[in-house]
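User: Fold this; tokens only.

Assistant: Input:
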Amino acid sequence: MRSESRPALPRHLHRAVLRLLRPAEAAARRLIVVAARDLVVTLPPARPRKPAPQPAAPALRHLGIAVSPLATGAATAAITAPARPRSAPSLPLIDPIRLPRPGPHVPPHRAPRISFPGAADRRPLPQPPAPDDPLDATRLGLRLRALADALDDLPKHARRFARWRARRDRAVTAGRVCRLSPLRPGRPPGARRGSTREIHEVLADLQWFAQQALARPDTS
């Protein structure tokens, strides 16, 4: 069978799109927070947690898998049924947390040669990346599609955020550990200090508006 060809972009174009996509996603996320400021939603009652799964029954010999007798029909249907097409991902409602780097990154083409005395490593190092190297753009296209969907239907995604906020409040009331703020500490993703690009100026403004929308009024 021939595999479907995936979209690709030269490395320099892929990086250029990412440099604009990150702040655009962060700005759209803050716009959703502002749009959901006065929205109030009512969540359905919390579902009871499912019990732990029981040990599986003897394996189906002709399939080589272990399933319970009650699940035999479901397993057979899952094997014979065609796979459902995946829906396009939605724009994430919370910022990714910036993780500390474990140390300086050394690209493979600059890796040090380590060998034992008298045994030199003669394997050639990989070539350094070139600006025109093709990179898979599948994930990039999905992120662009999610961003466009969020901007085209802002009320829908504002309701998404209102539901997330209600679930967070329920988790806090129950004493569970959860993410409290959709905005990460410090600068937003893709922000650039001193940049005069319009996307960075829009992101800086929306960062302030989103923080004001998330601030709780002082009733003391």
